[in-house]
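Q: What structure does this chain adopt?
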Amino acid sequence: MKRLISLISIILILLSLFTSCKKNEEKMELYYPLTEDFKSLDPQIATDNSSKLIAYNCYEGLVRVNDKGEVVPAGAANWSVSADSLTYTFHLRRDAVWYLTNTSKEELSDDDATKSDLPVNFDSRVTAKDYVFGIKRAVDPMTGSSDNKYLAAIKNAQYIIEGKMDVKELGIEAVDDYTLKITLDYADPDFLYYLTRLVAMPCNEQFFNACKGRYGLAMEYMLCNGVYMVYRWSPGAVIRLENNPLYTGESKALNDRVWVYYIQDEATVPEKIKNGTYDAGYVSAFEKHNFEEKKGFGITPRSDVLWGYWFNSNTPEFAVTELRQAFAGTVDKTVLTSPDYIQNTTDRLCTNVLTPAYDYTPQSVPYDEAAAQTKYKTAMEKSDDISASMTVTVLTCEDFADSVKKQIQIWQKVFGIDVKIKVETRATAIKMMNSGNYQIAFLPVTITATNTAEYFRTFMSDSDYNITGYKNSNYDTLINSLTDSMSQDEENDVYKSCEQSLITYGVVVPAFTEASYFITGQNTSGVYSFSESEVYFRNGIIS
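A:
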């Protein structure tokens, strides 16, 4: 009998192990590629697409955007707005907590006085004070947030951002642990949407101080309140997101984990989506046809790519306005032969993704060789870096190499200088351009802005997204003049002036628009995206 019982026990143990293994194998996992390495996951200062994408899935603000682009409750269960639209009162979820990893506890424990001041009895509740601290951090000029302009409508925010007022004067108040009041200087119809941005995420002051300047730089310096938490972070390789077991929001993740990989060779991404290695990702219009040929792939277009000649104002030569204008004034668009995947020719700086509310045809810099030669001579008088013996290099990719060579011949004839071409793969060329390693580039730029004002702000002198390096105080003043009290016509006049300024001063010569495409795999559904930096996995499932 004992032997029989022992045998039965062994069988039950084996069955238990088998069941456990099977259950583990059935965990739902998503795989996603990114072509930029993860830098800082501090939501107040994250700038690159990869870091923002991770942060959007690991942090949750007062409100968030759902798959339809609607603003819905998140950290706040509900809210009210005063009759004059100047006071927002948020009532927070009382069950929301921070996920503090064991790694963080060990690294930041106060057992060792030399490490930090994080208390053993750390209060893990997400309270109104966390939102106050996070938003004050964002507008504090010492933080260096590039997105703090989203919060400019908050009372005194603009003065604080400009360093003219102490951050203590910001119009935000924790009425109690679960009630937050935000007062505005002026009514902003987009204010709730702006609160879905990373810059408005909560930040626990105790944990932040315990990190001693390392907040968001490694897994042990992260404190997540979103639907996922970072379980593994291998710099230059992968981040593993786990379904946050402490998350109590209305919409929990439908999957167990997400693996986000840093892929250095962007060209491999489409094939790996097609063969199921990745469950979703972005591809160019050139690659889209590979997915149309097979059934089951989700294909969502984003008309967010602008091709043109971009001039790098961070270089000594093209910092001179007259040199940019000289080159822009001798761009012959008739020599541009576009591949089939290019949608439209354009003289506009805006693409469809911005859905500008105004109808406008900016005045292109007219083709005029004599005027360009005069501009060139003026540029030489202004800068010793510009001479008849200098060399200029144009960066482009294979698809437009022949067209760019024809344009180079025009510049060589008009200015009598040596103009070279540097041809790289599309992915390599874009990386070079994004790092500022170019003088002139004929390349596509993906626009991640979601509204017109946000897009034009990317060309401001202090913008981290200003890949052209353009600096113009008058342009900055123009953008900063935008207020909610303006009529739509007045706003449109500002946008028209911005667009015309960027073309007139030779920042870019627009040529074509192209769509990028968000692809979901044949067996994948529920993953949604608004841009390369905003991909949400919470509803993602594998069928």
